[in-house]
Amino acid sequence: MKWSESFAPLRNRNFAWYFASRFVNTFGGMMANIALAFAVLDIDDSPAALGQVLAAHTIPMVVLLLWGGVISDRFPRTLVLQVSNVASAVTQGLIAFLVITGTAEIWMVLVLAMVHGAVSAISFPAMASMVPQLVPREQLQPANALLSLTRNGLTVLGPTVGALLVVTIGSGWALAVDAATWLVAALLLAPVRIPPKERKASTSTIAELRDGWTFFRSTTWLWVIVLAFGALNMIHVGTMQTLGPTVAEDTDGVGRQGWGLVLSAEGLGLVVMAFVLLRFRLERPLFWGMAAISLASVPMIMLGAQPVLVALVVAAFVAGAGIEVFSMGWNLAMQEQVDDDMLSRAYSYDALGSFVAMPIGQLLWGPLAIWLGSDRVLVASGVAYAVICALVLCSRSVRELPRAPATPVAGVTSGTS
Question: Are 29 and 158 in contact (CB under 8 A)?
């Protein structure tokens, strides 16, 4: 793939505007994470209060994801995203106003966080399924790579800017900036023009959910991987998010600063691999994706067996690269193999299955480490992670899923900027 082909999606007017909207949206979201955390702590200096606010956002998002998939398949996805962005701007703006004026109470933030979580449940399936409507099929890989590249880069930059805003102008004003980015993201979607889809005979939400479930359970590669990632994500958050910082802090030669380097190395691996995938075509996307993401087990095992900083940094870099290969492979499989009128619902079932067990990892791995020892839990978790990846590759539908031929996709316009 030539570099001119790698950046070809940006010459498509629709994708260029969508890309700009996603950039602003992601940047604001990355800033908001740290701004909201300190805003809550400004109201109630309690980790429990922060946990309640985070849960208030997550629970409605998970509960309503399937409904969000139906909405995104039923209505124009650009409109769904614009309405969601405006609603997110309102909720974040209200939290910012309450914090700035000193009138905020935790129950108010909890209610607004719940509304924002519900809005996120609607916007996520629409956002994930937009790309096939914006570029020709042969440009799906570079389009996804460009989106990954900016997302991974902003993972590093966004929190830094957010922290700077919190320190200089306060957490409330930092949230106000985030609210403004949601509005800008909505405005940037206004020039996107996608031909309306032909609608089938009107059906109920329950019927469309049932159709989505039928498709999900009858598509072997889809349910196999979603089932696996229910466990894989649970293990990952339990080890790298829950136990990782604690073990790093208690290990000579690693510490808090060293753990920051480990996380940065993983982010760098994501960025570097996104650049690589801009240039090289990924064949058999799920085979290589699952093989690559199995490398994420290595830092877990090393953290439990021999937590040496240099080795952990290298392992985290490789793991980040592997995660990006899977992310690309998964998006290509979904966007090339799933019909457009089912794509949002497929993504919603994917998200529900992948996210639902994550709280178990966050809550269970700490007590397990106290009972059995962190080293044993980390090594066992890494081994289990690798075994699950290997079991997924036993599925022929996963191993042999090919790239789709470069044929026109309904709803894609060929206009260039």
Answer: yes
List of residues 6+ apart from 222 with CB closer than 8 A: 216, 338, 346, 349, 350
Average pLDDT over all residues of the chain: 86
The answer to whether the predicted template modeling score (pTM) of the entire model surpasses 0.90 is no
- What is the residue whose two structure tokens read 């309405």? 83
DSSP 8-state assignment for residue 129: T
Give the whole-angstrom CA distance, residue 387 versus residue 83. Answer: 42
The domain locations on the chain are 1-193, 205-403
The C-alpha atoms of residue 114 and residue 60 are separated, in whole angstroms, by: 6
pLDDT digit string, tens, across residues 221-263: 999 999 999 999 999 988 887 788 778 878 887 776 787 788 7
pLDDT band at 201 (very low <50, low <70, confident <90, very high): low
CA distance 126 to 133: 11
205-403: CATH topology: Growth Hormone; Chain: A; (1.20.1250)
Which residue in 108, 82, 103, 306 sits closest to 194, CA to CA? 82
Residue/partner pairs of 357-363 with CB below 8 Å, 24 or more apart: 357/230, 357/231, 357/233, 357/234, 358/233, 358/234, 358/237, 359/58, 360/234, 360/238, 361/233, 361/234, 361/235, 361/236, 361/237, 361/238, 361/239, 361/241, 361/242, 362/237, 362/238, 362/241, 362/242
In the CATH scheme, what is the code of domain 1-193?
Answer: 1.20.1250.20
Residues 315/317/321/322 CA torsion (nearest 10 deg): 20
- Tell me: the pLDDT tens digits for 112-164? 989 998 998 888 888 888 888 898 888 889 998 899 888 887 776 776 777 78
| 317: confidence class by pLDDT, cuts 50, 70, 90 | very high
Query: Which residue, among 330, 121, 153, 314, has the nearest Cα to 225 in the 3D structure?
Result: 330
CA dist., res. 314 & res. 383, Å (int): 19
Position 258 scores a pLDDT of: 82
Q: Are 408 and 136 in contact (CB under 8 A)?
A: yes
- Taking residues 36-44, what's their average pLDDT? 80
